[in-house]
Every structure is written in structure tokens, then in C-alpha cells.
Amino acid sequence: MDIFQVVGTLVCTLRVSGLDHCSLRVLRDAKGKLQVATDPVGVRPGNWVFTVNGSAGRYAMGDAKILTDLTIGGIIDDWETEVIPVSATVAS
Amino acid sequence: MDIFQVVGTLVCTLRVSGLDHCSLRVLRDAKGKLQVATDPVGVRPGNWVFTVNGSAGRYAMGDAKILTDLTIGGIIDDWETEVIPVSATVAS
Amino acid sequence: MDIFQVVGTLVCTLRVSGLDHCSLRVLRDAKGKLQVATDPVGVRPGNWVFTVNGSAGRYAMGDAKILTDLTIGGIIDDWETEVIPVSATVAS
Amino acid sequence: MDIFQVVGTLVCTLRVSGLDHCSLRVLRDAKGKLQVATDPVGVRPGNWVFTVNGSAGRYAMGDAKILTDLTIGGIIDDWETEVIPVSATVAS
Amino acid sequence: MDIFQVVGTLVCTLRVSGLDHCSLRVLRDAKGKLQVATDPVGVRPGNWVFTVNGSAGRYAMGDAKILTDLTIGGIIDDWETEVIPVSATVAS
After folding, report:
1. What is the ipTM of this complex?
2. What pLDDT score does E18 carry?
3. Which one, A15, A76, A80, C25, has least CB within 10 Å?
4. Stated pTM of the model
């Protein structure tokens, strides 16, 4: 699952029928690349979110007929990190 | 779902039978990379579109037997953005 | 679907049984990255082709038991482009 | 399957229902890119792990209804390498 | 399908149950990026191999319950190339 920041909402009057009634959010990753995702959660611009891709993304919409390949899975509140010891160098 | 600009239409006289009768569009992303997508919407060069990949892309053609891995999902009219507050720095 | 140029044919005497009797082509993308694809079309070195990935690539072989993740979908003759107006700047 | 180092645990009070009760780990690859994965193994920050993506990642959770696209498959203890002879230059 | 060189064997005492009894190889691509793949072929460090990803990779193990997303498909002996004529400039 990837980490993105919400930047806005897509306006698309002409789209395939399998995406009717879905909110489409524009997301931006750490490198500035934009992606579009369906939103079953209700996010707002500025939120950091994680996304689910592939067939799991369709199921995450609560309706496997929704024709998405990327769905917002949740809003990130925070994450807990610990200091990683220097000895952890297996895959350096 | 990815964001592309339509640059043209592919001419392929020799192709696999599962793509008969499909319009194949050449798309270009923000970095200039080209991709080919099936088009159930009817786009024109210069349009900005979003695409659906994987099995959802086949369903988006209205016929899961179409052998595509990328389908145009809609034409982007615009997108609404808001100013993102500086405090939103979780995943910086 | 991606765009590649055919550079040759792979010689693999030891391979998994689900790829028996398949021609395996070596392809090169615009950045020089190499990929291997099954070939139901009959391509030749120098041809520009587009490829279908994932499960659609298996179906494109005409036999879903072929264990490929990338199949050549057709030979590109040409593509038609139009001048894209400067006003098309939504996703700049 | 990809190789990552565990950097922490994600805190998400608002998420889709298909991820209830799952631990979500934040992982970092060799280039510093962050990903989120479900964790059926029980990892700790600093561990090096490999991940399974796509539908196999859902099955790896022991419950195909878990809406993940990336699951931790195991903790890497070490890997054995051998000196690779200079003559192995096929794909140089 | 991607091209890699085998660099070693992964040692993982703690892993998900769906990968029991599988040899896990560490592979390196042309840019030095490492990946982990299951090995139904029996490769040795230094071999150049091609890999099959996604659900086809599970089937290639001869048992679709193996929880892999990348499987070694064969050992590359060589590949035949031809000089590509300068006139082949469609997608330049």
C-alpha cells in the first residue's frame, strides 16, 4: 500500500459507467507524481492517506463492480517509529 | 488510476484477436513516457484522461474478453484543489 | 499497454513446463530496459510492438494456462498524432 | 517479492472496514521509498523483511477478505551469496 | 517477464506458512535492484534467469497455493539478436 497526500477532487463529466457516483481524489506522492483514487472514506485536501491497489481496491469500495484500480484505505493519523540499531545491515 | 494526455491513435494491422474493433490510443504521462490504452469513451488528441489498469480495465470496456491491461476511464474537465496547510507534515 | 522494440529471441533450454513451445522475445523500451514476452503474433527483430501484461496477457496467448505475464499484442505500423493545443494544460 | 526494512507502525483511526484488526507496518526500501504492509508475522522496527504483493498478499494473511495489496512474508535472517564468475555476462 | 542474475539464497526462519519448503532466491536486475523469487527450476548464483510475476507466478510453482508474487521461469542460455535497421524509427 502506498502513501499519498490528497490534493483535490477530479471533475469528469464524461467517464465509464462503472465509476458512476464515485468520488475521485487526486493524490500526490513524495516525489510529486499524481494518481487518481476512489474514496470510500471521505478525505479532505491535505490529508495523508494510504491506498490499496488492484482487485483489493475494488473490494475496498464495498462493491466489486466499481471499476477502480486504486482506493483510499484510510487516513493516516501518525506513525510510531523507533530508532533502528546500526547493526541492522543485512540488506545494505 | 493514472493521468495522461492523449497524443494519437495507434495503427496496428497485425494484432491478437482479442483486441479486434478496439480503438487504441497513445497516451503520454507527465514525464513523457508513452502508453497504449483501449478507449470506450471516445477521446481526442490533447484530452487529459485518467486510466484504469489490470482486470478492472477489462471490465471497463464493457466486455471482459477484451485483452487490454489499460483502459481510459474518463476525460478530465478540471480538478478542484485547496491550499494545503503547512501543518500537514506527517509523511514528509 | 507498453511500447517496445523487438531485439531478439531468448534461448532457454531449462524452463518451467507451462511455457513449453512458446517463443520468448527480448524487448527493449525507450529507456533501454529489457523485458521478455511471449509472442502469439510472429514478430521480427526491429519491429515496434505493444504488449499486454497480467492475466490479460495469458488470455492473449489463446490458452490461459500459458505461464506468461507479458504478451505481444500487435505490431505497430504507425500512429496518427495531431498538434495538441497549448490551452490543454489541466495536469501541467 | 521485495526487500524492505521495517520503520514503524501506522496509526489510522479511520480506515476501510476490510482492514480491521490488522497491524499496518511502514516499510522503507533501499532507495528510501515508504510502503505500508499488513503483518501476519509480527515484525519489529529494524527488521529486514520480504513482502508479497497482489492477490497472493491477501492469501498470505490467512483470510482472503483482508483488503491488502502488500503483506510481509517473512523476516530475513541472512542470505548466502557466492562469488559470481566474470564469465556470466549474458545480459550485460 | 523480467531478466535478473541470481545472487544468492535467502535464509528466513520466520515466514508465512504458504511459503514452506520453497527455495527463495535473491535476484539482482541490471540497475542493481534486489528482488526475491521462488525457484521451481533449481538455479545457481551467477545464472541469468527470467521471472514470471503475479498470479502466473503462483501457477508456475506447480501449486497455486504457494504465496509468491515472483517465480523463476527459466535459465537464460543466450539470446539471438539481429542488427536492427535504422529505418525502424516509429516510436523514437
Report:
1. 0.85
2. 87
3. A80
4. 0.88
